[in-house]
Design goal:
Elements lengths: L6 H4 L4 H10 L13 E10 H13 L6 E4 L22 E5 L2 E6 L10 E7 L2 H9 L5 H4 L6 E7 L9 E10 L3 H8 L11 E2 L25 E7 L3 H9 L4 E4 L5 E6 L26
Antiparallel strand pairs: 1-5, 1-10, 1-11, 2-5, 3-4, 3-10, 6-7, 7-9, 8-9
């Protein structure tokens, strides 16, 4: 019988132990704050027939979709990011059929096919440790919640059948720390870079911060403002539009944790478009 572990029990453990817990099925929760110092990544797995168009979609939208590694068709191992078997090394997956969510699973061993291609996309969880070390609180981590994520009215650049709106993640930041938070996260182009918007959520078409499309609501307190970063759940919107017959993603908030250090040079990764992410034209005026 598999022993169930909590997020609190995994905090502070090295990546090898965190991955072992995920691989064994002992941990199936969100990964915010785990394996400090290691790159975290969103996940999209598509049949090879759709992979070319999706790769172009990522190149055209480096802010929400910074590709940090791409696998070979049929190979479930992602050695570019470490000792990773994608079938078992993500806490939870969403399985899509014809663009609609079919089910959520915690292991892909029975679903893997010899035509599937892995895309690992940078995740904002990567820069959260740097923010916290600088004294900028991450309330969703302290409250053991999944960061809130929202659909927006900002369009992505389409490629083939892939397109649709940008998704953002939101973190409340003290007003006097917003500029510092922007400076810190801009150092992480492989993890979405600087915020795309600060302030009024209505500018992004978000009506209610207490009703995220994914994740859990996190309160914005007096003296704070909501700060929004491009989010790697954006491809899940694109998948709904493209309607591929079969596709797998991470479950929002449940990331792949790499052996790669979070500040590894962007040039080490497979998609040079990530270099542009910190200054992508998606950036909006602050409010």
């Amino acid at each position: 019988m598999t022993v169930t572990l909590s997020h609190a029990q995994l905090l502070g453990l090295p990546v090898e132990e965190v991955r072992a817990a995920i691989r064994s099925g002992a941990y199936t929760g969100h990964t915010a704050g785990l394996a400090a110092g290691k790159l975290q990544a969103n996940l999209v797995i598509l049949p090879a027939a759709e992979a070319k168009d999706f790769a172009e979609f990522c190149r055209s939208n480096p802010r929400p979709c910074p590709v940090v590694a791409q696998g070979e068709a049929g190979n479930p191992m992602l050695s570019a990011l470490g000792d990773i078997d994608i079938r078992t090394d993500v806490p939870a997956f969403n399985v899509y059929r014809n663009g609609g969510l079919d089910r959520r699973v915690e292991d892909l061993s029975g679903l893997w096919r010899d035509d599937l291609v892995i895309f690992a996309l940078g995740c904002s969880f990567t820069f959260e440790r740097a923010l916290m070390e600088d004294g900028i609180a991450m309330r969703h981590i302290s409250q053991d919640k999944t960061v809130p994520m929202f659909r927006t009215n900002v369009d992505t650049v389409p490629a083939g059948p892939f397109g649709g709106g940008l998704v953002v993640s939101m973190r409340p930041i003290a007003k006097d720390q917003v500029e510092r938070a922007s400076e810190i996260t801009a150092r992480y182009p492989q993890a979405h870079g600087a915020p795309v918007h600060v302030g009024d959520p209505a500018v992004l078409g978000i009506g209610d911060l207490n009703s995220p499309d994914w994740g859990d609501p996190v309160e914005v307190l007096d003296g704070e403002v909501p700060v929004f970063w491009a989010c790697g759940v954006t491809p899940q919107n694109a998948i709904r539009q493209a309607r591929p017959r079969f596709c797998i993603t991470h479950a929002p908030g449940h990331m792949l944790i790499a052996d790669t250090d979070e500040m590894a040079p962007v040039g080490a990764f497979s998609a040079s478009a990530a270099v542009q992410a910190a200054s992508s034209p998606l950036t909006l005026a602050n409010n």
